[in-house]
């Protein structure tokens, strides 16, 4: 349809979801972003968080991403990330345990700023998985 978008959620190893959507909501390094049909072309860098999809057919969905990229052009949206998980496929208890583990790792002091940044990224990705799982249930 003319007022719909074609969306693809693509992880490093597979297409996680592909279909028609009325709207896509996500967060980039520049802030929250909502994309609807006829959106101005853009490219963005995603932060770890969730992607919410208002699907044309079937139930709306939410996915967790660990960062990545967003491309919008010609009523097509591509979200590319190393890891993308649909909320309905996430084990909520395991995701909560991952958050706790990441929080503990962040409490450890390290002389390496890189290690601290990696721990923060793991925490944000784990929190996104919990949020996606909670919204999907």
Largest sheet: 5 strands, mixed, barrel
Q: How many discrete structural domains?
A: 2
Tell me the span between the first and last alpha carbons.
29 Å
Oligomer: single chain
Question: What is the name of the CATH superfamily of the largest domain?
Answer: F0F1 ATP synthase delta/epsilon subunit, N-terminal
Q: Helices, strands, pairings?
A:
Layout: E1 5-10, E2 15-28, E3 31-36, E4 42-55, E5 61-73, E6 76-80, E7 84-86, H1 92-107, H2 113-136
Parallel strand pairs: 1-6
Antiparallel strand pairs: 1-2, 2-3, 2-4, 4-5, 5-6, 5-7
Quick take:
The protein has two helices and seven strands; from the N terminus they run βββββββαα.
Overall description:
This protein is an alpha+beta fold. The protein has 2 domains: 5-87, F0F1 ATP synthase delta/epsilon subunit, N-terminal (ATP Synthase, domain 1, Sandwich), CATH 2.60.15.10; 89-136. The protein is 29% helix and 45% strand. It has a 5-stranded mixed barrel. The relative contact order is 0.19.
Task: Give the key terms.
2 domains; 45% strand; 2 helices; alpha+beta; ATP Synthase, domain 1; five-stranded mixed barrel; globular; 137 residues; single chain
